[in-house]
Every structure is written in C-alpha cells, then in structure tokens.
Amino acid sequence: MKMTGIIAAAVLIAGSGLALHAAQSQQPVVKRTDVLRHDLDVSGREAIQVRVDFAHGVAFPPHSHPGEEIAYVLEGLLEYQVEGKPPVTLKPGEALFIPAGAIHTARNVGSGNAVELATYIVEKGKPLVVLGLVAPVN
C-alpha cells in the first residue's frame, strides 16, 4: 500500500512537470539572436545587430537602450510605441529610428510571426536592454 502511494505521487509529479513544459513551450515568445558585435572608432561605443523574432500577438515590454536603435522589419507587421510619439506600424522593408534612452515597446500586430533586425550604436559595457520601465503614453 505504501509503495502504491509512492508510485502514484511520482506519476503525479512527472505528469505535472510534463504539463508545465508543454504549457511553457506553447506560450508566445520573443527570441533575440545576436548577429554582430563590433567596436567602433569612437571611444567607448560599439555596434550591435540582433535579429528579433516575435511570435504571433507578442509584445516586447517597455524598455530602453544605452544608445540609438534602428529597427528594420524583415517579416510581418510590428507596431512600435516610442515615448512622446504616436504609435507607428511598420511592414517589411521599413525602418524606425529610436533615440538613446527612449522608452519604447514593439508588438507583433500581424497575422503570423514578425521579425526585425535591430541595429544599436551603444555605450560599450552597459546592458543592451533595460527592462522594467513604464510604458510610453501617447
């Protein structure tokens, strides 16, 4: 009887872990893939390029960068909201300049996945993304 209880508990624990893994794998995500990182001739600055994949309906939370960003849309439709400016929706082939330190968000508003190539000119040694900021209100 005691062994049956132990086996039942083990099965429940294993099942819970599998269910959690399945739920996590189905949650929408933003995937960032580093493409390039290179020092600039300007002291203390570097250029960084990152491919950012947005699952359907996903938004990247309010954040900023320690330098300028140029967001170039490769696929899908992305809506950007930059503090102090009205929201803008970009399609493939369109780009947006985001000033250093500007709090902004990006959201996939298309019917499928969306992808951007983000190019940053930033202060070397600082975190590239600063999260936990208040969303821009326009």
UniProtKB/TrEMBL annotation:
What is any Pfam family matched here?
Answer: Cupin_2
For this protein, the record's PANTHER family field holds: CUPIN DOMAIN PROTEIN (AFU_ORTHOLOGUE AFUA_3G13620) (PTHR38599:SF1)
The record lists the organism as Mesorhizobium alhagi CCNWXJ12-2
Q: Is the Protein biosynthesis keyword given for this protein?
A: no
Q: What does the UniProt keyword field contain?
A: Signal
Signal sequence coordinates:
1-22
Q: Where is the Cupin type-2 domain?
A: 51-117
Q: Which protein is depicted?
A: Cupin 2 domain-containing protein
* Cross-referenced InterPro entries: Cupin_2 (IPR013096), RmlC-like_jellyroll (IPR014710), RmlC_Cupin_sf (IPR011051)
